[in-house]
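Q: Sequence in, structure out?
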Amino acid sequence: MKLKARLKNLLLGHPLNPFNPAILRHASLVAFLAWVGLGADGLSSSCYGPEEAFLALGTHTHFALYIAIATAITVFVISLGYNQVIELFPSGGGGYKVATQLLGPYIGLISGAALIVDYVLTIAVSIASGMDAIFSLLPTAWLSSKLLAEALLTLFLIVLNMRGMKESIKVLMPIFLSFVLVHFTLIIYGIAAHRSGVVPVVHETLQESHNFIQALGWLPFLGLVLHAYSLGSGTYTGLEAVSNNVNRLREPRVATGKWTMLYMATSLSFTAAGFILLYLLWQPVPALGQTLNAIVFHAILGNSDFGHVVLFITLLLEASLLFVGANTGFLAGPAVLSNMAIDGWMPNRFRHLSTRLVVQNGIILFGIAALGILIWCKGAVSVLVVLYSINVFITFTLSLLGMSVYWLRKRKKASPNWHWRLVFSFAAFLIAAGILCVTLVSKLQAGGWLTIAITCAVIALCLLIKQHYKRVAKKLAELDVQLRQPITEEDSNPPLPDPQQPTAGILVGKNLGVGMHTLLCVLRMFPHHFKNFVFLSAGIVDVKSFSGQDELEKMKLEVNQTLAYFVNYCHQYGIPAEAHSDFGTDTVEELDKLAEEVCAKYPNCIFFSSKLVFKHDNWITRFLHNETPNTLQRQLHMEGKELVIIPMRI
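A: Exactly. Output:
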């Protein structure tokens, strides 16, 4: 066991104490680090979003000027809309919480399901696009190894993120800053080198637009521009990541979040619009195994040895930033999953934090899902971008609609400038809804149907899980009422336990009825055998309780009150009893430590727990319930301790 613990600490890092206030500050992010960790997704998407938009224009490349202007404006409009989300929901949750609280739980479910699929695709498309950049530097014969490289990188990011959010950002920060420095410089230099062509490009764009409209009319013109604009919508992905993770930011969270959004909007609009202008000025010709960025930068830097070295560094940084963008999926995706688990849409195990205070189960799930999609589409960025864009704008549309509804409802109680906030929210909603509709119509048969099908499947699964948890919660609530025994008065002189006598260790959870069922079954099955009763409970720090010190203290109080009830119940019948509690992020680990302490004091101790038994038992019910007693039983048996699991039929 010690060797296993050492290996775990080496791989994932030493555990963190969630009850140490300094840890909350250590794990939180200042605006700059948040820009690096959460803004990398948006900035990295500029490496493939503008390219898809430019290629969609076909021979009418001069229309890219409109796309560049629209892209820069859209980034700031959506950012302003999400600033309002940060103000109203400083505890995080982003699009899921906005839709849930402002439009209803079922609309929130749609938004949450779209976000889950979105973040899986964030990982997949960023890794695939990053590998495209790397393999642009390699011979085409090596392309057959690209999928294997993508799989290995996905596994590496899973392990890296399980070490902790702030730690993963610090590792990736030099990559992010180097990308910003090099690419900003190349964009400025590339435009300046062609500065004599900027004015003619504007004139030629207006002339080509006039000729196109004269020949075909306004509708085909708008259709072509909007189609290209919608295919570049992957550029805006990542803007919602800050609002999803406001609870991870340094206090004051709202101000930190707004500064982070400003950094993100400025860097993304400059980079995305800059890339499109470079394509327009340098007119790259697509080539097999080469990204447009690789072709344009090669043209800008020339064929000298120095140019080749800088090109190599540039594309390597581009690929690396895309990998940092993939990391955003591991940071933000599990946060959405855990918020949905708190509301009962997802299995409870996805709300639990690991010893490094990250949602470990969510990280593993997102990594495996992304790996599966990469294998299915063979790492094709063109396919992934279509799937990606649709889900991103489902969440954007619902979130910004929710904000618009909020300002309409609260206009009488809101601040005097509520109408400007409404205008921004509604304008952003119209843009997001427009892009979503155009993308759905134009790309439904080209793969868009698949992302809709996957999202609907996630929604259906969430509905089944919610229905099951509601039914079980209702039954457990009834048992809490039925089995709660009155405590007449606390015994001021309770009986003292004899450590050498047979002792029953009763594991108690958050449901009083389950604990009482265990206690009464032990008394019935072993009459007068056990002379001492020890009640054990582990308070688990999950995403909800880790949101602040007040929540942690509330959780501790609830655990200790439940234990006090059982001790007082035994005392009033003259039964020696005591309670032991511990708090952490892993239920099994904390209960195992408590069991070791109890066995040291009471050598003749046998532990008891209950598990839920269902009439129609299947793998779903086994996945949703009883993880703790079954795992703990195996752990204690390996250590030579006895744990008896008592069935409790629901």
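Residues 503-649 form a domain with the Rossmann fold fold (CATH 3.40.50.620).
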